[in-house]
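Work Package 3 (structural annotation) set out to generate three-dimensional models for the target panel prioritized at the project kickoff. During this period the team completed the workflow that converts sequence records into discrete structure tokens, so that structures can be stored uniformly alongside our sequence database. As a representative example, we reproduce one entry of 357 residues exactly as it appears in the project archive.
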Amino acid sequence: MSKRSLTALLLAAVMLSSCGADSKSSFDKKEQPEKAVATVDADLTLSEEESSSVSETSVVTTAAPETTTTEAVTTTKKPDPEKLKKGVLDGYRFNTAKFPKKVYSNKKLEKAFKEIDKICGDYGYDISFVYKNMDTGAECSFNDYRSYGCCSTIKAPYCKSLLDSGIDLNKNVKINVIWENDGGTVASAGYGSTFTARELIKLAITESDNSAYYNLINTYGFSCLNELNSKVGANYWLGYGYIFTYCTARDLAKQYQDIYKYGANSKRGAWLIRLMQKTDMEDQITAALKKKYNVSHKYGSDWDQNCYHDCAICFAESPYVLIIMTDQVPETEDSNEVFRRLAKQFDIVNEQIYYSK
């Protein structure tokens, strides 16, 4: 073989080797894994037999694929707890109770309290709220015994009472009542249409369908809710001739704490919690907190009564219930503001609470 031929062969080998490296680089290179995210089961039509109990964080974590990257991962560590300073809980328009003896930051807690106090001053008697941490029992409240039209906030406790009573979710319910001026799914289907109890509960929660709720009441009555209220200490009840009534933020706080516990301990409760995380109206508390953790909620509004409310179970690292009731024109950007302002401050308050795991 001539030197020229040998040189040509060597050059060809080098080129082939180079092409192979480029090809591997282009087609075999692994993409960077997506960051692990907390997701909620989006299938809300599961039967209670198929659905499983949720943990107290009510999330499913999607694990990231393995990676060979050597990039350091940093995590934010909570500061050591410090003794709660005397006077931090005093001197506000709202009440505080059962706060732990230690917190993560007196300064952040006091700053959030001052902002909440300002909100109380801005809105006065037009708002009521109850915040309660589910690990420690720490609580803040304002105008919590003022009575409002409960509006659709009653639907979640009512559906919980039905689920807990053991009704057959596959039972077919014939639609024989329609809420006046209702344009929801059930009203659109019309008289004589048929829905399962499961479908009516789902519509009452996710779409706040008044006719779905009306037909559940018409089929199963209201004694199950009244019995639940007696059990948890909520001081109101339903009776013949009306499907909505009046209640206080304190009443609703007791009921939504009960839903939280039911969701953590039963399959049907887990399903209800998921329904409350997939509603078509999430402009209040959920809007302020949904980027941080899951929020299960039920809102209520009524233009005639000038009522606008939101009741939320917030699945932070240490879960809490937040009930906000207001006397204002509902469903506007302006009327959403107080819910978001309070939610952001109570998120800060909740982060400062020290609890033993």
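The chain is about 40% helix and 15% strand.
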